């Protein structure tokens, strides 16, 4: 008597249980990611339709429910911004449903270092019944985008997140990336996700309101990405250093946009957008920078710490024979011209074992990368190279070199 198909399946399953070498089922699928990055001006002028286009790019429904979080530092610099957002929403009320007043939140590392703020933002999303087709808009610097991005990514397993970066650093680097995160257990960005934004809207009007210190800070990432990926852009930065040091608008716009483009190319075509491997080329100079930020209690801002990290690793590249002599001085000259100080006393702070505290940044990187250290150094200007070990002695010599340069 023939067996039924169900009996055959059960028999096959039973045999498989006894065969411990059975081939596993392999689930495999791809998910395409796509998000627009705009460069505009006066985003909340009612005649500017960039935000409207963004909200309606997937569905053409009448109302789009929106909640807006703003860095309180931005509100201090631009006190009329909440009113402008309300006016924009009212002008386009047939398309925009602003579910509550724009909400100010602390900016910078304060927001990223206290989980209370994340819970507060998530509660506001829940209280206002935002669903997965609603929009969470973050207006602020990189820390604000990181924290709100994490809130959006973990609420309903993902609410659409629109980033509106307000600093040079966030417009030319972090704003176009796919990472979100906050600090936890004394480690920078320990708690986070990889979750691309729904869109990135860069408004140059925010750059005009920045302090000189904040304008300078963001230029470190432009130098970084030029050093590892684009010699012609690095040459352009050198040629236009005077204009950039004076924050001339035309050169600033070009620098911000080209830097963002290079970061986008690396994310999309570098082969590892969610950093499942060990290499993180866009973190050139960052192993020391992240540790310096922590050691100084974040009094040293990210861009300032990155500039020191770039100088440190560029000289190290010369010491270990990768980079031609003199190129380290060339890089330091550009960074100094742009307004960076390349020495900080925290570089000399010692751990209990007598070693520089900053060296612990290598161990932090190794752990974050899954146990295998991979550091980007320079082979030539415009070309980075990955190495899997760092000589502590050469790092110490690089620190001393930076100190000597500043004396």
Short structural description:
With 407 residues, the protein is of the alpha/beta class. The protein is 48% helix and 15% strand. Strand 10 and strand 11 (383-387) form a beta hairpin.
Structure overview:
- The protein folds into two domains: 37-208, 3-Layer(aba) Sandwich (Rossmann fold); 212-406, Dehydroquinate synthase-like - alpha domain (Dehydroquinate synthase-like, alpha domain, Up-down Bundle), CATH 1.20.1090.
- It is 48% helix and 15% strand.
- The protein contains 18 helices and eleven strands.
- The strands form three sheets. Strands 1, 2, 3, 4, 5, 6 and 9 form a seven-stranded parallel sheet that branches. A two-stranded antiparallel ribbon has the order 7-8.
- The longest helix has 21 residues, at 249-269.
- The radius of gyration is 24 Å and the shape is globular.
CATH architecture of the largest domain: Up-down Bundle
- Most strands sheet: 7 strands, parallel
CATH class of the largest domain: Mainly Alpha
Assembly type of the shown chains?
A: single chain
Strand content: 5-15%
CATH topology of the largest domain: Dehydroquinate synthase-like, alpha domain
The overall number of domains is 2
Distance between the termini: 95 Å
Instruction: Sketch the topology as an H/E string, one letter per element.
Output: HEHEHHEEHHEHEHEEEHHHHHHHHHEEH
- Work out the helicity level: 40-55%
Shape: globular
Question: What's the pLDDT, averaged over the residues?
Answer: 91
User: Radius of gyration in whole Å, from Cα?
Assistant: 24 Å
Number of strands: 11
Unreliably modeled segments = none
The CATH homologous superfamily of the largest domain is termed Dehydroquinate synthase-like - alpha domain
Number of helices: 18
